[in-house]
Amino acid sequence: xxxxxxxxxxxxxxxxWDLLVDALVEEGFVETRAEADKYLKLHSQQIRDNGxxxxxxKARGMALPSIAYxxxxxxxxxxxxxxxxxxxxxxxxxxxxxxxxxxxFQEYEVQIADEGTRDFIMALRGRVYNQQSDSGLERAMxxxxxxxxxLQLGNFGTATLNIIGGITLNFIANPPMASLKxxxxxxxxxxxxxxxxxxxxMRALSDMVEFKNLADMIQxxxxxxxxxSDMISLLRDTNNVGGYLxxxxxxxxLGAPDTLNMNELLxxxxxxxxxxxxxxxxxxxxxxxAQLAAKYALTDRLAxxxxxxxxKKSLKHIRxxxxxxxxxxxxxxxxxxxxxxxxxxxVMSNLTQGSYKVDQTPIHLDTPTGxxxxxxxxxxxxxxxxxxxxxxxPFISALHGGSQVRVEVNGVMTTRRVSEFMKMLKFFAV
Length: 430
Hints:
globular, two-stranded antiparallel sheet, 22 helices, two-stranded antiparallel ribbon, mainly alpha
């Protein structure tokens, strides 16, 4: 927000800096303006872009006047999301609590002799912790990337290609019957009698048809983490550009503020074009279809495993689960309800539609410059990853006797082989 921009660059935002200085004196934080200047400069040295807890967390160590804080409800929601992500980082990579402590990346850095490998590990660390360059070039690329996103994706033609390609990928990644069943469920409308009282004619007509199954699946996906209410955020195309622009006099006369938040303006532009151009609605449908198809497919696979875990079809299911990091026994135990099941559906949804996480996108593509120049190559890397894991590997393994799977027989884990030579045809012919 404007306070953080001011603390990062007080000379550029002198007017707001003076307001903060005056507020510090008036609210009794310091006694003189000189002390207030020193106080704010000390705080500004701690400001970092994309910090997981930003100003709220900083306030625990150094309080600021009330005008420095953002009290909107959305801030609290964002704080909860950042808390969950930070907790996951600590759980997986450790936490730096003292000057001498290190996280997992730093521990490996000192153990590796190859300079290139060390550079990659630290670049990976920066990506995991969302550390980004604040250079003028990167900010310019962020602006260009957002403009390209709104202009290129925010139109009916792109939305049409998106829904055709997205649903096709869902059919490729999941069994055809599960995908078809999910498609029929989501596209089934409910009809209501028209109610014109208190509504416009067009609104009353639109309310006659309701896609309740789709709405319920979107809500379920948001709770699961497979669908984000702000799809632009999920696509990682809204990195803070920062900076404020002076409002033209003609807009000031119409009641506009003295300065315009550049990042907010660009976000509104992208959201508006992609919403009314049809991209966001189609993306919601595709991701809902992906998770429902995965849900139906999981039910069918677990049913096969319960009948006969040693059957060839069951062994194929086990290979599928193992390839994506799941123990089929955990999923059998949960029987469709539980954290492992939720994680499986989330993984399978991201497998085809992507979330641009560090395990799906090369690091150099997931920078402002990479996102601008290689915007559509990002998705190709994700589809290539799906093709390699679910089609190419089984095909090559079939040429060498089949894939090895671990299956439990009478309480003892044994190794079996299963061949999926023909699966490669599905990728090209569904």
